Amino acid sequence: MTNFSELTTLHVGGPARKVVRATTEEQLIAEIKAADEAGTPLLVIGGGSNILVGDSGFEGTVIVVETSGNSYEIDACSGGMLQVSAGVDWDEFVAFTLEKNLANLESLSGIPGTVGAAPIQNIGAYGHDVSEVIARLRTYDRVDKAVKTFTADQCEFGYRNSIFKREKDRYIILDVTFQLRRGEFSLPIKYKELADALGVELEAKVPTQDLRAAVLALRSKKGMLYGERNQNWSAGSFFVNPIISAEVSATLPDDAPRWPQGDGSIKTSAAWLMEHAGVSKGETLSGAKISEKHVLALTNSGSATAEDILELARSARARVHEKFGITLVPEVRFVGAEL
């Protein structure tokens, strides 16, 4: 029997009763239908990079999406339209777009996971989200039992959110179509950390390959590149950056990061809150550990259980709430587990 320690980047979690690896869209839909018709609990995963499964495992069918392939049209003026299967590795796809001289995904380099998982939580980094470049996507609707296409507007994208996250497990993403700009220069740089790494001013544009290299270097420095040697296992950023009201923002110290949002709210840094609430890099709880490179990465140092990770997360979240009155929201999806 397969354990979730073999299926997730945290390498924790109990047994999966049945695991199916779907390599074609037809197989993926057929397996979903079979499980639903039999009344079998169903869990669909991609690269396992944003999920924590409890130590009791999952009593049902686990489908690992491994569909592959893409089609694309690139025009010298209008850019590229690329339709990509859900099981394609995200960072391999980003690298492919840059090889084709297509821009706008370079700041999302190095994010683990698959293309199909990207729209669910609207992945993003360094001031840009994947929703900016999605034209449409195809899904299998488990309620209507039919393939359904969503335009970008219908996806109801928000900060680390979408209709697919809110209506959890209803829509299984089959493929995603991206509209990318043709060009060799990046979008304007929005984050000082990234600008400093490149030696340029904010709002500057740089060659896309240079920006990708800088992003990968920063993610490596923070321990956010999965599969690097001598790195503890993690799910990337465990908590999302909080979106708070202007009133709550005013209660934070002057040096707290603040990124104004279009609706008057303020985004602040979960990592800053944790560090200033006494959460330290390298602190441990049984086999769980706060990364020595970045406080937002809760890691499995090799012997952690799912409950060890959860207990460390509870401790960090409680200290932030006690210090600042802000409750951190997990970015990681829990299955058979909760904070």
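(the above was protein one; protein two follows)
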Amino acid sequence: MDTVILSRWQFAITTIYHFFFVPVTLGLSTFLAVLETRYVITNDETYKKMVKFWGNIFLINFAIGVVTGIVQEFHFGLNWSEYARFMGDIFGAPLAIEGLMAFFLESTFIGIWIFGWDKISKKTHAAVMWMVAIGSNLSALWILIANSFMQNPVGYAIRNGRAEMTDFWALVGNPNVWYQFPHVLTAGISVGGFLVMAFSAWHLLKKNPHTQDFFRRSMRWAAGFALVGSLLVGLIGHAQGQFLAKNQSMKISAMEGLWETEQPGSFSVVALIDEKNQQNTFDLKIPKALSFLLFNDFSSEVIGIKELQAEAEALYGPGNYIPPVTLSYWSSRTMIGIGLLMILISGLAVLWSRVDGLEKRSWFLKLLIPAGLLPTVAITAGWLVAETGRWPWIVHGLQKIEDAVSPSITAGNIFFSLISFLILYGVLAVVGVSLMLKYGKSDPAAAVEKGE
């Protein structure tokens, strides 16, 4: 493997691993803020205990997310220096704001939140938790502003072979951001809800009379949280798909395995894709459905991959502008399929937890435990679609992936660091998951007392 392939593998592994933890931080911070607000309103000590108990999971996850996130930024200078040279004027601004404003805001208020119990008023402490949640989600916003330029470049000019920012507010107002950010935000909400449901289900199966009320309440709140997140992430994802149909048509056609232009476009339910011969050997379709999903009518034309490839060659010159169709196709179906399953599971959890029927269905509680991983799998599949769907571009229409890698770095250097990261992240994964399982399975009273 050459430096480009190794650099791509290294960044992909680092990013996917880091993003296992980011949505948990986004979702749980908001979940904790809601619970603590409920504690302030009702003065019910159970809510305070819930905040402290689930707060342990949040803090463990936050610590690991910070460690893995910092490493990513070093990739730009080490493995992707040509990208940094070309994009630094634009990419550096939102990253700097994220670090100096959002991350410092989040980190400062986390410290106050940890050590401020019984030292500041209840209302102030709840407000601090809201500042943590706002800081967490602001961090995501600025990162996505940077990423959205790579997906949909705006507010720039090419000067001396570099992309230079000409309009900061165009960067912030990039329409891609305002589909992508709500999509990530609501995905985090679903992750937080499903994680709490999974641990609550484990405890409810134990039938410990001292903890049943605690985890019944946790389950009710988490189920509602998960359902809201799952519904919103699907609706926003649909709107984002319609935006991409107009701005990244190749990504949409790759997601659908659509080689030939169709009018109207049929939605592919399942297909066997032959990328070499640019055809599908089997394709089960719903007629006209794709046109309706993308354009809200049953007659619109959906341009196929082959025609889009010809258009790209005419615009950018000879080359392969087709992303990995099989990966895009099945990643999108994984994302959509799991998303629909999440709505079903969280909807049933809301229903049965409110009619006292949840504990009578031990099979469903057992299902909820592994279901805690469903949003993480769906999110990972979604990011694969987002990032690989714009290949061969690292910055859509402006810079190709092979032109962004550092010219002087060797394959040996990258391979050594790749193996080192795999080992280090493997250890961190074991430690992090072990700690989360330890606290998640512990008695709430004991865990809260240790947390204090």
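Reviewer note on protein two: Residues 92 and 146 are 8 Å apart (CA to CA).
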